[in-house]
Amino acid sequence: xxxxxxxxxxxxxxxxxxxxxxxxxxxxxxxxxxxxxxxxxxxxxxxxxxxxxxxxxxxxxxxxxxxxxxxxxxxxxxxxxxxxxxxxxxxxxxxxxxxxxxxxxxxxxxxxxxxxxxxxxxxxxxxxxxxxxxxxxxxxxxxxxxxxxxxxxxxxxxxxxxxxxxxxxxxxxxxxxxxxxxxxxxxxxxxxxxxxxxxxxxxxxxxxxxxxxxxxxx
Length: 218
Known about the structure:
The structure is a single chain. By secondary structure, the chain is of the alpha/beta class. Helix content is 40%, strand content 22%. It is built from nine helices and seven strands. It has a seven-stranded mixed beta sheet. β1, α4 and β2 (67-72) form a beta-alpha-beta unit. α3 (29-37) packs across α4. The termini are far apart. The mean pLDDT is 82.
């Protein structure tokens, strides 16, 4: 845990540039794809897990009009998120995002509090047991009928960028990654219902989603 926090604190300064290089998405259009895939509407409460520098959280607040809580265990990442939010303060139609430093395996949030839970470009980096705990926590904090959405890059095609991707995965831990990649829907079916997936235009990014069961008679 200490190494991972140290790594992400240092990585925070150039994380956004790395993501743009990896995805080829200089305008970060895939963040808008996430807003659509998560069916975010004004008035929704969204919890964005492993929020990093807050790019997805900020886009969901700006384009979706939702109240977004960005959660990350890295102080360095959250400093970047707060800086970006301050620079964009006037761009939110609803409340500005809130930022919470916490371990996503034990969220300091009450049960049934979120309409949506999202996780962008992070699930593949989590070891299997950690990923399961994150999904359990997502299920706990979602309202009945709420939606979980994870978004990930598909493996890059260019050799150099693919090498950088593999090095990063190796540094943050690969246990369970190969078993999860390509089988995301099978994993989500253990926790959610109506599981499905959609691929962004251009085919570089994929969103996998599932619903928390609604209350009987609801």
